[in-house]
Amino acid sequence: MKKVAVVGVGETKFSGPQDMTEVELFAEAAMEAITESNLKPKDIKALFVGNALGDFAEGQGMVQSLAAENIGCLYVPATRYEGACASASMAIRDACMWVASGYYDIVLAGGVERAATMGTGLATRTFAMFSDSRYEYPAGITFPAVFAMLTHLYADTYKIPLQKLREQMARVSIQSYKHGSVNPRAQFYGKNADMTVEKVLGSFVVSTPLTLHDCCPFSDGAAAVVLASEEVASKLTGKPVYVTGTGQSSCGPLGNQSDYLPRIRAREISSQRAYEMAGVKPQDIDLCELHDCFSIASLIAAESLGFFDYGTAGEAWEKGEADIGGKTAVNPSGGLKSKGHPIGATGAGQVYEVVRQLRGEVEPERQVPDAKIGMTDTLGGDGGTLVNMIFERGW
Amino acid sequence: MEHKLIFKDYNEALKQNKLLGLKCRACGAITVPPKIVCRQCASPDMDVIELKGSGKIRTFTTVFVASEGREDEVPYTIVMVELDDGPWIMGNLEGIDPKEASMELVGKKVKMGHKVFPGDKYSAGEGARPLFSLVN
Q1: In Å, how far is B90's CA from the nearest CA of chain A?
Q2: How many CA atoms lie within 13 A of A289 on its CB side?
Q3: What was the pLDDT predicted at B85?
Q4: Which stretches within A339-376 are classed as H helix?
Q5: Residue of A nearest to B125 (CA)
Q6: Mean of the pLDDT values across residues B45-65?
Q7: E-strand spans in A68-204?
Q8: Which residues pair with A393 in a beta bridge?
Q9: What is the pLDDT of residue A193?
Q10: The pLDDT of residue B39
Q11: Taking CA atoms, which of A275, A381, B5, B50 is between 20 and 30 Å from A284?
Q12: How far is A111 from A374, CA to CA, in rounded Å?
């Protein structure tokens, strides 16, 4: 397999409801990535686009073909990926494989979503479509409810008093708000930097024990990256970021994961494959953009990725070990909690952040010093799809 | 290859308070909800059996923000129950005040009834779910 490099990245601001269409959002991110790569749309050989719910958000299916035409990538193959919140990461991983195979030398991958535009009722309904429609939805499952149940299970499994766990989880939200508040592309840019444990615990309850501040927002946004072969990348940029490892895994309804819960087995397998492919270990990762759709999700993810022992991630957050300057810097972008979670674009947004961190280009307050190896972690559904990718400086 | 048990028949049985599952002839594991192969060993050689529906609560939550069309149901409590037969299934808990649901529920024994979700424009019809209640 050939080495694959990220040669350009682009991203819209992640936000609440806004006026641009999904095609327009994706086009802005895509053109930023293409321009940054010193390329033209005609140079792109294929598009790989994550989009989970465009059909519901604006009655638009097949957004990838319309987006390709919109940006002047005419008559090239354009493929849509749907893996709930992991859609864009699936798209980027597959795009990597096409370049690694040698079939294409330059491709565009990313994603787009208008989850905020749907409003809370429809967004909650459609997000629940990623649980089992026949065996889980009749009970009224929602996405917060999945992670709320994992919270109670986590407390019981590791024998952590629920109140103590909730305070640890609040620390996750506080850290994410801090970094997002200084990220101009974040939905909560300039907001919530003064969040406290008391405010997190005292905000309104979405699904016990999760409050509003334990939950990521619904978001609109798009992100895109240009991937190129090593040979092409060397001509385009002095700072290629290589995709050195990837893994993807899937599994069934939440109840069928009972042998491992609250661990997400699909994540363990996905990340192990990525580590093996890259030839690195969890302690080698300088920063990780991980899937913090809920505060508890950060703890579960950081443990399955091998950053902290099972049942101890909450303590790690309390001690600053998951922050910049700690063992592994988690979500210096603000993560899903503060940067935002336009689900079909989220994984591409994570890659955007990791690439810019490795290049040393983010705001000084949230730059991980001398970051050399970064990782992304994206979860779709209640563990149904997991994608992990590892990126390293190519200079 | 034909299924031994599909959603339609599982659902009709649940509406009679009968929980159907599949017992694997190869490894003995019980699969519920139904799949075309065993959840443990992927053998398709399984028999339909009726489960007792009794078990214990492993985790729970009370939902305050509902999906579109289900706003009138909140607050309601969802539970994951570990059946005496092994598998975990999702259902609702009745007979308690949802606002009072706490960690004390974890480990409590439950028995099973059912309640039908009538369906919405996305759901391809109705679907019953287990409705659990605490065993005194």
Answers
A1: 6
A2: 37
A3: 94
A4: 346-359
A5: A134
A6: 97
A7: 78-81, 106-114
A8: A241
A9: 97
A10: 94
A11: A381
A12: 20
Write down the residue that tokens 């990525």 correspond to. A274
Q: Which two tokens stand for residue B119?
A: 């369906």
Distance (Å, whole) CA A34 – CA A71: 10
With both helix axes pointing from N to C terminus, report the angle between A63-70 and A22-36 in degrees, rounded to the nearest 10: 50
**Residue A253, preceding bond cis, omega within 30 degrees?**
no
A196-239 pLDDT, tens digit per residue, is 999 999 999 999 999 999 999 999 999 999 999 999 999 999 99
Option in A124, A132, A152 nearest B67 (CB): A124
Q: Tokens representing A54?
A: 């465009």
Residue type, A21: T
pLDDT given for residue B120 in this prediction = 97
Q: Of B92, B85, B88, B76, which is closest to residue B127 (Cα–Cα)?
A: B92
Let me know how many helices (H) and strands (E) chain A has, helices first.
Answer: 14, 12
pLDDT tens per residue across span B2-16? 999 999 999 999 999
**A36, two tokens:** 């940054």
Q: Is the ipTM of this complex over 0.90?
A: yes
Report the sign of the C-alpha dihedral through residues A123, B101, A133, A156, in that order: positive
Q: How many CB atoms lie within 10 A of CB A57?
A: 26
Closest CA to A154 of A89, A214, A218, A86: A214
Over residues A352-380, the mean pLDDT reads 98
Nearest Cα of chain A lies from the Cα of B93 at a distance, in angstroms, of: 10
| In chain B, residues 30-89 whose CB comes closer than 8 Å to chain A | 33, 35, 39, 58-71, 73, 76, 78, 80, 82, 87-89
**B111: distance to nearest CA of chain A, Å?**
16
pLDDT average, residue stretch A307-325: 98
Going by pLDDT thresholds of 50, 70 and 90, the confidence category of residue A122 is very high
Please check whether residue A118 is in contact with residue A126, taking contact to mean a CB–CB distance below 8 angstroms: yes
Q: Distance between CA A320 and CA A126 in Å, rounded? A: 36
Beta-sheet pairing, B55-63 with B109-117:
antiparallel
Instruction: Kindly report the average pLDDT of chain A as a whole number.
Output: 98
Q: What are the residue boundaries of the structural domains of chain A, listed by start?
A: 4-119+218-236
Q: Which residue has the tokens 């190519």?
A: A394
CA A343 to CA A362: how far, in whole Å?
23
> Does position B136 have pLDDT exceeding 90, yes or no?
no
Q: Mean pLDDT across chain B, nearest whole number?
A: 97
- Active site (annotated) includes residue A291: no
Rg of chain A over CA atoms, in angstroms? 19
Catalytic residue among A179, A213, A291, A341: A341
DSSP A180-237: HTT-TTSTTTTS-TT--HHHHHHSPEEETTEEGGGBPPP-EEEEEEEEEEHHHHHHH-
Amino acid A128 reads: A
**B53: closest CA among B117, B110, B115?**
B110
Q: How far apart are CA B57 and CA B79, in angstroms?
A: 6
Q: Give the architecture (CATH level 2) of A4-119+218-236.
A: 3-Layer(aba) Sandwich (3.40)
Separation of alpha carbons B43 and B39, rounded Å? 8
